[in-house]
Amino acid sequence: MKADRLTCSQEGVRLDAYLARQLEGYSRAFLQGLIERGCVRVDGVVKESSFRLKTGQNVEIKWPYEEVRGPRSEVLGLKKGFEKWIIFEDKEILVLNKPPGLVIHPAGISWLNHPQAALMEAPLTLVGYLLKYRPEILNRKVPRVGIVHRLDRETSGVMAVAKTVLAYRSLTEQFKSRKMKKIYRAIVEGVVPNKEGVIKTALGRRTHSRKMEVMGGGKEAVTAYRVLRKASGATWLEVHPMTGRTHQIRVHLTHLGHPVWGDEVYGENKRGRSVGSRMLLHAYRLEFAHPKTGKTVHFMAPIPKDFGFKVRGRSRKS
């Protein structure tokens, strides 16, 4: 456990404000969380964020970077779980089947400036798992701990992680130039009438809003879809996002009039979570040029069991 020691030279400053000034790259909210967890002591005593420091007082920060909290059995379970997610791995890339519920990285920017801060998140984010079980990625100074793309917390499926700087540059460029082919599977509300189609709109985010929406002046977004199965009240789609905008699939399918089943942000949520236990969106296939060999490789993540729910009526092929 790494520790830093500081001597206060400011009279009456709040503890959290003092740390924010002294520790470049950490957000104040992150540091407040650190204080609340008892990782900061003033003259050997744990204090609250609002504590007013006096000149000459010693502030000690203990960074719990080397530990994953919990019983030994739980820690071992985390490692086994991580290993089970691996679809493919070599010296350049790591391909995972991300489970639903796993967040890719912590909120804020603290982890970008000091990646090991992600180890302090509970539960661990994917970045935290990579730091714990693939520390060579950080040791090689791969940007963003190898994260080249993201999946929403509830979205499951295939994800690629760069293990070297070469792989990071190659994969990010392939995403940027739209050479990365992504195929998703989604169950949406209602019966989609057409067998296939293309949704092309501009997407953007209004000031002070976290939600994306179809709007003039936004960035071009294109999504192709194909019906796989229909049932009373739902349709199973294959979805191909041809661009990579935030929440693109979810916004486009809602714009089509058929939001992803269980989407509590973009859907009207008339059905709630009574059928699917989460938003039923799955990254099924990923295809790209291998960063080292240049050969085309593709990886698939099996369809999760929760995609096999029964809807009203008998499921039938479209």
Shape: globular
- Sheet/helix structural class: alpha+beta
CATH fold-level name of the largest domain? Pseudouridine synthase
Secondary structure tally, helices: 8
Strands, total number: 15
Computed Rg: 23 Å
Please give the alpha-carbon distance between the first and last residues: 58 Å
Unreliable segments of 5+ consecutive residues = 66-74, 311-318
**Approximately how much helix is present in the residues?**
10-25%
Corresponding CATH architecture of the largest domain: 2-Layer Sandwich
CATH homologous superfamily (4th level) name of the largest domain? Pseudouridine synthase
What would CATH call the class of the largest domain?
Answer: Alpha Beta
Strand content: 25-35%
Question: Average pLDDT across residues?
Answer: 86
Question: From N to C, what is the helix and strand string?
Answer: EHHEEEHEEHHHEHEEEEEHEEE
Q: Topology of this protein?
A:
Layout: E1 2-7, H1 15-22, H2 28-36, E2 40-42, E3 45-46, E4 58-63, H3 72-85, E5 86-89, E6 93-98, H4 110-113, H5 126-133, H6 136-139, E7 156-162, H7 165-176, E8 181-189, E9 196-205, E10 212-214, E11 219-231, E12 234-241, H8 248-256, E13 281-289, E14 296-300, E15 316-317
Parallel strand pairs: 7-13
Antiparallel strand pairs: 1-4, 2-3, 2-4, 5-6, 6-7, 8-12, 8-13, 9-10, 9-11, 11-12, 11-15, 13-14
Helix pairs in contact: 1-2
